[in-house]
Specification:
- By secondary structure, the chain is mainly alpha-helical.
- It has a domain of 55 residues.
- It is 40% helix and 0% strand.
- The protein has 4 helices and no strands.
- It is extended, with a radius of gyration of 18 Å.
């Protein structure tokens, strides 16, 4: 019987690998295109704004932007020095 080696990963090695990725928002949307605040920044599966029935669609969109900002700031910038300067950096 043949055995297959399954690589073992841990949180530290995954973070180190992720830190090697060097992208910035302008790389994704281009320098000539501003962020479109009329659209959500996060998919609903991450933002969970539609389930809050007391919010209007505009308020749900604003909450989506806020949650995207919180998510971008919760990713440790020291691990991703060139990447996580995403939303609402005025």
């Amino acid at each position: 019987m043949n055995t297959i080696a399954i690589p073992k990963s841990n949180y530290t090695s995954i973070l180190k690998d992720a830190a090697k990725i060097a992208w910035q928002v302008p790389d994704l949307i281009g320098n000539d295109k501003p962020l479109d605040f009329s659209k959500p920044f996060l998919p609903e599966a991450l933002a969970h704004t539609r389930s809050i029935a007391c919010l209007t669609p505009d308020e749900q969109l604003t909450l989506n932007h806020i949650r995207a900002n919180k998510l971008s700031r919760s990713l440790k910038p020291s691990l991703f020095p060139n990447q996580i300067q995403l939303f609402f950096t005025y």
